[in-house]
Inverse folding.
C-alpha cells in the first residue's frame, strides 16, 4: 500500500499488493487449499493456504498500512493472535500484564501459558506500577489502552521509554480504538494486536485476529507459529474483513459521535452512579488520550444505581442487543461480570470494579437520538 495518501484512502486497498488478473474492484476470494506450479523451481509466492493465501495477504497489506507497520499477520481469532505472540517466549520468561484486561486473555495467561512455564505479574499499567514489577527475566509488558472494561488509559510513549531502556517488548492491544484513532507503533510499541472481529471487521459477521509490527525477524517467528499451528485466517473471512475495513473510517467517526452524546446523557442520569468514557473531560486519562489518540472511541462502561436496575436494563433493551463482543454497526450492551470477564478471579473483579452493577456499551452507528431514546425508555420502566 502507498503511504502518501490519507487513512480513508488506504482503507480502500486500491493499490493492490497482489494484482488480480481481471482487475476486480472487490479483491477476489482465493478459496483454494493449494496452488499448482508449472515447473520445478517456479516460485509463485503461494504454495498452501495454511501458510499463505492471496486474500489473506491483501488484508495483511492493508492493515499493516493502517497501523504504519511493516508486517501484519492475520489469525483465525483475536485469541489465536494473542496465543501466537505468547509463543515468542520460553519457559521461565516473565511478562508484566495490565490487571484490567479482556477475560479471555486472562484465561489464556492463567490457565494455559502458566502451564508452559511463563510467569505473569498483574499491575495497573496506567499508574506507573510497571517499573517496580520488572525482573531480570522480564521479556514483555502487555496491555490494552483504553482497558476493557474499566477504561484505564496508559501513556504508551512514556511506557515505551521504560521498556526500551530495559530491553523489554511492549505489546499493545489496540482493539478498542482501532488504527483510525490510535497507532501504538508510532508511540513506541513493538507489537500491536487487534481482535479483527471488532472494529476492523465491523459487522459482527466474522472472527479474526491481527498482529502488526515493524521487526521483520519477530514477524518471521510469528508467521512460523501461524504456519505450524494452522491458525491463519481463512480466505473467506479475510475477504469479509477486507470488505469491513473499507468503511472503518466512516464507522468510527459516526460511532464516536454517538458515544459522546450517550456518555453525556448517562452522566446526567440519576440512575447512573459512574460513567467510564475517556472522552469525558473529568476522565483521568482524558489528557493522555488527547495526546496519543485522534479520538476517544465508542466504548462506554457505566455503573447503574443497583444490581436490580442493571438487570432491568439488560432484560428490556430492544434497539440494543444484549450480547458479547463489540465494534460492529449495531449497538451492543454487555454484562462483563458474567460475559466477557467471567474468567477473571472474583476478588480481582471486585477490586477493579467489575461488579454486579457494571454495564458496557459498544455504541453503533444508528441515529444518536434513537439510541438515547432507547436508554430513556428503558430507564423509565
Amino acid at each position: 500500500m502507498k503511504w502518501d495518501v490519507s487513512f480513508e484512502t488506504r482503507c480502500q486497498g486500491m493499490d493492490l499488493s497482489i494484482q488480480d488478473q481481471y482487475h476486480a474492484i472487490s479483491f477476489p476470494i482465493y478459496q483454494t487449499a493449494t496452488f499448482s506450479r508449472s515447473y520445478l523451481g517456479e516460485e509463485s509466492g503461494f504454495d498452501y493456504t495454511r501458510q499463505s493465501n492471496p486474500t489473506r495477504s491483501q488484508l495483511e497489506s492493508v492493515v499493516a498500512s493502517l497501523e504504519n507497520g511493516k508486517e501484519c499477520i492475520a489469525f483465525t481469532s483475536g485469541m489465536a493472535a494473542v496465543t501466537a505472540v505468547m509463543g515468542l517466549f520460553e519457559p521461565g520468561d516473565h511478562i508484566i500484564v495490565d490487571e484490567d484486561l479482556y477475560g479471555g486473555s486472562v484465561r489464556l495467561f492463567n490457565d494455559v501459558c502458566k502451564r508452559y512455564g511463563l510467569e505473569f505479574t498483574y499491575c495497573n499499567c496506567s499508574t506507573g506500577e510497571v517499573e517496580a514489577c520488572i525482573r531480570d527475566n522480564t521479556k514483555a509488558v502487555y496491555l490494552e489502552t483504553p482497558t476493557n472494561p474499566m477504561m484505564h488509559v496508559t501513556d504508551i510513549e512514556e511506557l515505551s521509554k521504560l521498556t526500551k531502556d530495559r530491553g523489554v517488548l511492549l505489546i499493545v492491544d489496540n482493539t478498542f480504538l482501532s488504527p483510525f484513532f490510535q497507532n501504538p507503533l508510532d508511540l513506541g510499541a513493538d507489537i500491536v494486536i487487534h481482535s479483527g472481529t471488532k472494529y476492523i471487521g465491523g459487522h459482527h459477521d466474522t472472527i479474526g485476529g491481527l498482529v502488526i509490527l515493524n521487526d521483520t525477524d519477530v514477524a518471521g517467528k510469528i508467521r512460523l507459529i501461524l504456519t505450524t499451528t494452522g491458525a491463519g485466517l481463512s480466505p473467506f473471512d479475510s475477504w469479509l474483513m477486507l470488505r469491513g475495513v473499507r468503511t472503518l473510517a466512516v464507522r468510527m467517526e459516526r460511532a464516536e459521535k454517538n458515544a459522546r452524546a450517550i456518555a453525556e446523557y448517562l452522566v446526567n442520569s440519576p440512575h447512573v452512579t459512574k460513567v467510564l468514557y475517556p472522552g469525558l473531560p473529568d476522565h483521568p486519562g482524558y489528557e493522555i488520550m488527547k495526546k496519543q489518540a485522534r479520538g476517544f472511541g465508542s466504548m462506554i462502561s457505566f455503573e447503574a444505581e443497583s444490581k436490580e436496575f442493571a438487570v432491568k436494563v439488560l432484560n428490556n433493551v430492544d434497539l440494543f442487543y444484549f450480547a458479547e463482543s463489540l465494534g460492529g454497526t449495531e449497538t451492543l450492551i454487555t454484562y462483563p461480570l458474567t460475559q466477557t470477564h467471567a474468567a477473571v478471579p472474583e476478588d480481582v473483579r471486585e477490586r477493579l470494579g467489575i461488579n454486579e452493577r457494571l454495564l458496557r456499551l459498544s455504541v453503533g452507528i444508528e441515529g444518536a437520538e434513537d439510541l438515547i431514546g432507547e436508554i430513556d425508555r428503558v430507564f423509565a420502566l
